[in-house]
Amino acid sequence: MKTQLRINQPDLKGEGTGSPSNQEALVQMRGITKRFPGVVANDGIDLDLYPGEIHSLLGENGAGKTTLLNILSGIHQPDEGTISVRNEVVHFKSPHDALEHGIGTVYQHFALVPNLSVAENVILGLNTAWILDLKGAERRIQRTMEKFGLTIDPHLQVQYLSLGQQQRVEIVKVLFRKPKILLLDEPTSVLTPSEVGELFRMVKQLRAEGVGVVFITHKLHEVLELSDRITILRNGQRIGAVTPEELANQTHEEISNHIVQLMFGGVPEEETEGTYAPRVSEEIVLTLEGITILDSQGVAAVRNLSLELRAGEILGIAGVGGSGQKELLEAIAGQLPVAQGNIRLGERLGEIDLTNKGVPFAMKMGIAYITDDRIGEGIITDLSVAENSVIRRIDKRPMSRWMLLRWQAIFDFANSLIGAFDIKVPSPQILAGTLSGGNIQKLLLARELSADPTVLMCNQPTHGLDVKTAQFVWKTLREQASMGAAILLISSDLDELLKLSNRVGVMYNGELLEVLSIEAADRETVGRLMLGERS
Amino acid sequence: MNEMGWTERLRPYISLMFAIIASFTVGAFLLWILGINPLRAYQVLFEAGLGKLGITQTLIKMTPLLMISAGLMIVLSAGIWNLGEDGQFLIGAILVGVAAPIINAYLPKIPALLILGMIGFLGGAAWAIIPAVLRIWYGLNEIITTIMTDYLAIYLTSWLVKGPFRDPSVIPPQTPVIPLVRRIPQIWGGVHIGLIIGVVAVLGVHFLMRNSTIGWKILVVGKSIKTAVHTGIPVARLSMMAFLLSAGFAGLAGANGVLGVKGLFQGDWNPAYGFTAFALVYMARFKGGTVIFLAYFFSFLLLGGQMMSLRLGTPVFFVTILEGLMLIFFVVNEYLFQHVLERRRS
After folding, report:
1. Residue A177 is inside which H or E element, if any?
2. What is the SS3 assignment for A256?
3. What's the CATH superfamily of A23-102+179-268?
């Protein structure tokens, strides 16, 4: 306890990296280099973490943040460089070794067993005794959660929890092991604003107890709110840092300009509102009438929802995760049956009934759907980029003829998409699973848009992407709209929704509460509706 | 269709060779425990397969393995574990045994053979309908249901051949003997056209799985049902197709057994090719050429094993132990390779 008290005094903090200090660093990474086939993911990176400090890692997608974190958490072993934990040089062979040294990690992708309870998930892998004391464990878990103001019933099966709750289980799992060092990889990307607040309170509490936290995010305002120290990576190299002193003495605006400068070599061009003139026509492209969708448990995920979508408009759907947005898109795409109501397409050619007609029919009628589950549902990781690019059109010429695939045509098609969407891949024969998140999203965008959709549906189109790729996605969506496509956009990023949409609908608990014009949709109004408060 | 380094390309073959050598080494140890000179035993084993008789017998034995493997290459690619090959084989075989005399009475040789082959194929496929429906529409584990239907088939055929389907003119329970002239045309010393059909089936399946739209879509279903649903690939229809095709190939192998080798369906007949075919398809990593090589090699072992037990009194199941060991070592090798490669990368 004594050391922790001393640690919390800010004047004892070291200056910059590697500077001598009377305070012992928790972690010192020196000259970390990690190569993967074809890329240097980390190139001689130094990183210091002090007790009671939140250290943010910033960088574009593919800048090497996650790799660096994975090295510190024992998943990867560095090719060069050393890691010391409390001045002791360590070589982690596995995440278990890292855990033994007090390093706990909350990964971007959860590792929970869906049909085990919260408590069972938390104690999984803790081999403290021969006899399973689930009751005692539940009590201790409850205590851990109470201490950090977290609330989840430890008896619940994990598969019934929302993503935000699942993340809390992951966090509890780590906290339960009493880490001295906590690594968080994009923890806020699945959270609602209030959940983010809760997370931040907890992280600050850990900081006050002397835990060192490494925090990865794409959101600048989060970094500024939370960080004591910031390291900026670019192309695998550490290109700059913001020290505690700078954070204390400069305004947020100065710092954010500085960071953006470092990350992108220039302030990203803000599109002026004038360049994008929405041309919403009066033509209704898609009509939903009183649809109800049941989930796999037979509970209504979407209730009596009606909606009209016009050509050339972007209709944003806001809502807390799991309010039925995904089911809505899946039903329109033909993946999920509609229990009640109907889905109709178009006025131009007379109305076409889309209700429960299946995916191939919806595809033929010009419905395109970019899923949020890019890796699990969007692509096949161990097929090539080329094969993934033609997956929806494999039966069409020239991809196949007489039921035989024509590889040359497939590669040509893939190459044309790679060129048009600037997908970073050395060859279309590379496995799609080796691409970065941003490039996978570009691949999906390319694949769905190549069918010239009349209705384009996107779920979390920029989730986890760097600013540059996100801007590319935004630009592409706007172009599609201005060319007459009707776009249904779901995003947990409210700023994104408000920036792109012509109208914003808010879903709450399976219902579409209201559809606002963009003028009427400000953050507070939408946010209140998201929490289920009708104005 | 993916770019790989040469180590990646050679890996399955190296790991296969290692598995074979390691299993023979452990096998030698087991023989030594039994008090049999391993060198002498292996000498007998290998001698049996050489020479004209050895080669023709091996080729005859490998034919049903090839047909069953062709089916397994499809169904395993779809991510479905049809382990009911033996039952599907028997149902195909007994139907052919019963139908042959009737069809032979009305049709000339070649059309009769074609129709009988079809009967074997469809009979095998029909036997898989229940497990297939249970798996595809009700989510029941097909490993359990196909093993259960295997036992059903064994006892059902055994009862049928002793009861309703029995040829009353002879004493042992069996279907009427098909005259030699009405059997599958031979190529060379007992080796018949079935072998060619088997080889063509394996190579054809290998090619079509990677180069036809349907084969490729089955592959997609096997790799990710979620992605298949998302992209409008008919998962249920393709799974059903893969399941029934594989069962059909097993039934065809049954027809081959009756029409090409035995000439009848005998009581309590169960050659149980399923496990061997399963092992070799996995060890060949679904590659047609390697499947053919391994089918030959395993048949060669089977023959040698019989010779060994005849001459040296080794247990008849000794070669089955060798096969099992090979599969285990193959899996271990795969794991080690993965590990070593990752080490070298990091």
Report:
1. none
2. helix
3. P-loop containing nucleotide triphosphate hydrolases (3.40.50.300)
Q: Which pLDDT score is estimated for A17?
A: 38
- Subunit contact B226:A376, Cβ cutoff 8 A: yes
Main-chain phi, psi angles of A468, to 5 degrees: -65, -50
Q: How far is B214 from chain A (nearest CA, A)?
A: 7
**CB pairs below 8 Å between A and B: how many?**
77
User: Which residues in chain B are contacts of A34 at CB distance < 8 A?
Assistant: 346
Cα Dmax for chain B: 73
Alpha-carbon distance values, A391 to A302, A386, A405, A410, A415 (Å): 29, 9, 12, 10, 15
Cis before A154? omega within 30: no
Whole-number Cα distances in Å, A284 to A252, A366, A454, B287: 45, 14, 11, 52
What is the SS3 assignment for A304?
strand
Which chain B residues are within 8 Å of A431, Cβ to Cβ? 2
* Sheet strand arrangement including A300-310: A300-310, A284-294, A340-345, A352-353
**DSSP structural state of residue B337:** H
Three-state SS sequence of B118-171? HHHHHHHHHHCHHHHHHHHHHCCCHHHHHHHHHHHHHHHHHHHHHCCCCCCCCC
A281-366+453-534: which CATH architecture? 3-Layer(aba) Sandwich (3.40)
Task: Report the C-alpha gap between B89 and B253 in whole angstroms.
Answer: 6
Residue B253: the pLDDT is: 96
Cβ contact B227–A404 (<8 Å): no
- Using left for φ > 0, alpha for ψ between -120 and 50, and beta otherwise, residue A507 falls in beta
> CB within 8 A of A101, min separation 6: which ones?
A85, A90, A92, A181
Q: Which of A249, A93, A104, A73 is nearest to A177 (CA)?
A: A104
How much is the pLDDT for A38? 61
Tell me which residue of A533, A458, A534, A530 sits closest to A501, measured CA to CA.
A458
Comparing alpha-carbon positions, the chain B residue that sits nearest to A35 is B346
Q: In order of start, what are the domains of chain B with their CATH numbers?
A: 62-314 (1.10.3470)
Q: Round the CA-based radius of gyration of chain A to a whole number and report it.
A: 25
With an 8 Å Cβ cutoff, are A427 and B3 in contact? yes
Q: Closest Cα to residue B254, out of B234, B272, B231?
A: B272
Q: Cβ of B230 and A429 within 8 Å? A: no
Which tokens in the block code for residue A2?
Answer: 């004594």
Residue B171 tokens read as 């004493």
pLDDT tens per residue, range A140-179: 888 888 887 777 888 888 888 877 788 888 888 888 888 8
8-state DSSP, A433: G
Nearest to B227 among A37, A358, A378 (CB): A378
Q: At what angle do helices B38-49 and B6-33 cross, to 10 degrees?
A: 120
Q: How high does pLDDT run on average in chain A?
A: 83
Q: What tokens were used for A272?
A: 């002026």
- Nearest Cα to Cα of residue A509 among A238, A334, A301, A367: A301
Span of A152-156, A301-305, B120-124, B199-203 with lowest mean pLDDT: A152-156
- Whether residue B2 and residue A429 make contact (CB cut-off 8 A), yes or no, is yes
